[in-house]
Amino acid sequence: MRRQTTRRLSPRLNLLYRAGEATDLRVAFGEYYQAQEINELQVSDGVFDFHPAQRAQHLVASVEHGFESGMELRLEAYRKKYRSLMPRFENVFDSLVLIPELQLDRVRIDAESAISDGVELSLTGAGADDLSWWASYSWSRTEDRVAGTSTRRGWDQTHAINSGFSMDWRDWSFSAAAIVRTGWPKTVLQAETVQNPDGSASLNVVAEPRNSRRHSLFGSLDARVSRNFDLPRGDLTLFLEVTNLTNRKNACCTEYAVRLDENGDPVLEASESDWLPIVPSLGIVWRF
Question: What is the mean pLDDT of the chain?
Answer without folding.
Answer: 91
